[in-house]
Every structure is written in C-alpha cells, then in structure tokens.
Amino acid sequence: MNILGISCFYHDSAACLIKDGKILxxxxxxxxxxxxxxxxxxxxxxxxxxxxNGLAISDVDFIVFYDKPFLKFERILENFLFxxxxxxxxYMRAIQVWIKTKLWIPNIIYKETGYKGKILFTxxxxxxxxxxxxxxxxxxxxxxxxxxVGEWATTSFGVGVNNKIDIMSEIKFxxxxxxxxxxxxxxxxxxxxxxxxxxxxxxxxxxxxxVDKIYNNLVDVKDDGSFALNMDYxxxxxxxxxxxKKFHSLFGGGPRNPETKISQREMDIARSIQQVTEDIxxxxxxxxxxxxxxxxxxxxxxxxxxxxxxxxILREGPFDDIWIQPASGDAGGALGAALYVWxxxxxxxxxxxxxxxxxxxxxxxxxYSNDExxxxxxxxxxxxxxxxxxxxxxxxxxxxxNKGNVIGWFQGKMEFGPRALGNRSILGDPRxxxxxxxxxxxxxxxxSFRPFAPSxxxxxxxxYFVTKRGQHSPYMLLTTDVRGDKIVSGEKNYETLExxxxxxxxxxxxxxxxxxxxxxxxxxxxxxxxxKYHKLIEKFYFISGCPLVINTSxxxxxxxxxxxxxxxxxxxxxxxMDYLVVGNYILCKEKQKSFNDKxxxxxxxxxx
Length: 608
Known about the structure:
It contains 20 helices and 21 strands. The chain is α/β, with parallel strands linked by helices and 608 residues long. It has a domain at 370-490 and 504-604: DHBP synthase, CATH 3.90.870.20. The strands form 4 sheets. A 9-stranded mixed beta sheet has the order 13-21-20-14-15-19-16-18-17, sandwiched between helices. A 5-stranded mixed beta sheet has the order 3-2-1-4-5. It has a 5-stranded mixed beta sheet with strand order 8-7-6-11-12, with helices on both faces.
C-alpha cells in the first residue's frame, strides 16, 4: 500500500511516500524551487517521490494532508471575533487567502496531481506526534509536541504504544512557547520561522539578566510546565508584527534593525529567552514523565529543533532516552501524516527493537549516479578528476582537509530536514582557530558568531564530548559539552571577555566546533548509516589524530541546501570553497574556468 503525505501553505512544504509502513522518500519543496521555506503546493516533491519509486499517481492508495483546514479556519474566525475591533487588517489578509485556497485542499490536490482516490486529514499535532513516535526505536514512549501553532494546539503531550498514539493534554493558541521564542527572534532583528537558530547561537555570548523580567511580565509558568502568555505585550494575535510598544518599552527600545550591529543587550536578551525556554521545556517533560510513567520520550514540532534545550532534556530530564524527529518542523508533518494513516487509521502492526530508528539516517531525497553526475558536470564545462576507488577518494579529501582546505561534499541521497548530515555538507578542519570565522564570512556569507557542528565517528564521540551513557546523536539535534581534557586551560582572562571577543579565544583543541560556552552541536556518524562519510572522517582521523570534521550545510545564507550537482557547482563557484566532491568526481577551484555570476553575495547580505 502506497500512502502519500503532504504539508504546505504555511512554510516548509514537503511530500513523503511510504509503502507498507516503510519510509521510501521525503523531501522539502524548497530544495527543488530554490525558494527557502517554500510554502507552495509541493508539486516537485510529489513528482520526485513518485518517480523515484517507479509509481504513478494512480498507484497511490491514500493521500493525507497534515492538518485540518476547517479547524484552523475556525481558530482564525474566533480569534478575530475575540479581538474586535482590532485585528481587521490581519483578518482581511488571512480571509482572502483562505477563501481562495486553504479551504479547498481536496480540490487543489485533485487538480494539481490528477489523483482520484481518497484524501484524508490529520490534525496538525497528530502529524507531529506521529512523526516523532512511529519512526522512533521505542515500542512505548511518551511524546511532546511544541511549535508555534497548529489548528489550536501549540503544546501537546501523550503516549504512543505499539501502533497507537493518544494525545492526553494540550495548551492552545494564543499561548505558545514557539511564538514566544519567535517574538524574541523578531525583536532581535531576525526573521521569524528562519532566524530562531540565530537566537540560539547568539545566546551563549550573553548573560541571563532579563529572565526575571520575562517571568514577571510575559509568561506565567506553573510547576507542571503549563504556561500562559500576557498578551498585552504581543501583537501577533491582532496585528502584523510579533511584538508591540509595551514589549519594546519593557526592554528599552524597539526591535533591532536587521543587519545592524548586535550589541551586548541583544546577546543578553537572547540568553534570557533561551534559558526561559529550556526551563519551561524541562518542567514540561518532568510533568510528562510523572503523568505517563514511560521510560522514553519522543519530540517533534519546531521548538524541538532547539538542540540546546534538547541536550538539557536528555541530561537533566527524567527519561532514560529521547528521540527527536530530524524534520521536526512542518516538513515533517507530511511524514507524520502518512505514518498516522498507516498505523492509526489502518491499524497495521508496528515493529521496534528499542535500538534502531526507522528514519534511515533521514537520507530520503534525490541522489545521482556517477554517470549522471559526469554528464551534468560536462554541461557545466567543469574541470574534474574521477576517483574510482572510495578509499583513495576519502584519503585524498581527508588530506586536503588536513591542509586547511574547505570542501563541498555532495554524496548519495539528500537529507530530509533542516540539517546537512554528511550528504549535502561543507567540511573543514575543526582544529583551525580561524576556520569558524572564515567559513562564516567567506563561505556561508553569514554572521561570524554562528557556531559550526562537528561530525564525529560514532565510536569516538565519548573521547571528545560529554555524552549520557554513550548517547548517539545522528541527526545533529543535541548539544553537549566538550570534554574537560579537550578544553584549553589557562586562556588569559577568558571568563572576563564579553560578547564576540570570546570568539578570539581557542577555547579547546577543536575551536572551530566549540561554542563560546564550551558546547557543541554533535552529529555522530555511523558506519552502518553512512559508510562513505564515516570512511572520510576515519581517514582524516588516521592523518590528523582528530576523529571529527566541521560539518555545515551546503548552502549560502538565504538559500536552501543544494539538491542537484548543478546547485552544488554554482554554490562552490560563488563561495570561497577550495574543492568540490560530487559523487566520485573531484573539482579544484583553481582549475575551473571563470564563473559568470551576476550576484554580489557580500553586498546582498551587507557583510564586511
């Protein structure tokens, strides 16, 4: 049986195909359209899922949409009536879109796909919960979903047992931890639904001096983690911005203008909302453990991409282990909706072994054979050499990384979710004290304070990072501390440094992946899940004595992760990368012909 899951019309549109319960393909629309967070109907994603698996739309038994539009429309209407006479502009904008598009999902699906079968709908948080529990390795587990808002729910928890999930409790709009964090994202001058990572990365530079102000004015939190926002300070319920004048007055001024200098004040605010978020999440999971008595916890929803909070839940929470959906945002809703139909609606049996998840490393997107890669590179008039042997290829690239080169690494199936996990990655040497700043400014064209993640051999992770009982982190969704014996001791006056001055310190023997609070967002690489990437890091270990590399997503700021060899070549030529590896083809920047690029990337992003 083939089930096609779809998510769209808000942000991060996606499609997923499962066959007899097995996840075959899943991809975000942005990767094909090159429009970051593309919200449009995922025509290209659906086309890929079908073609990749040799299916026609007539072979699909069910199409399932990841939320219930009429419930969401009900919330919009009720919210408008509650806010009258305010909120008319917001309502008029929304109602036009709803009347034209969002209320007619079945018609759109039939028209866009030519499908003639049955269309099903799951509730938004059901989709998230299903995406968290069903691919997890656990037979039984509690689950927690935290995001901005679905139809009404913003936070929900429940239990999954075998093939059933049951939502036990929820917090409803407008009270939302995700929207609280997004309000601060907006206030700090970053883009909502995109810049939350920046707030998380900025937080360690600051001090939590605004925590009490947030608790005393913005959010009332109970011992069980339930919370209510003071809507007097927020504008998203009835206006076109996240915060209002009262919020701005509370924090001493209006929102930071994007691209302007970030001050210590912004760093302190970021640290404060990050701490509040972590504290609330920890209270919630302790309550869930008490209510459910389960040993394991599964997480999904946009807030579950906050890897710092996730790390705290694992270390300080009461659960033996946690599993986080790699595509925790709305894209993952397509996957969850399809799995929900297979297990809950159709009542199919579920298998689990308590050890291995069923996400397959989240390598679920397009891949290209070496023959196809060569044809595409020839059309680009690229200069390349071919390395037929993987061992020789990996040894060559490991040597280049060891010499300080930055590598574009394009292999196998593209990752599903916002993280590059070794198939669409940019790689570098984590031992270099200048690599973080250089890669941010010359490769990624983004703020220099943003940290990079380490990809470490699974079997060597404990040598460099403090893990809980050998916890693996294949999806780069957990932050942990760098081990004390890897910290550089005696750094002059490090503890007295403020803000971005901390970047000037080496901090550890792997400074390029050690954040200023001595943490790292770790990806553990398994030989079973990604043998080629594991081999590359292993070769680097043999050469350098260091069993990890820098791994950042293969894209520049403002663009989606690359999908095709052409995307990879274009990104390679536009940036300061030294080498590109596409399949078994190696491209050296110095040997390429001139590249006619009309975009001035440095000017586009106003970077020095």
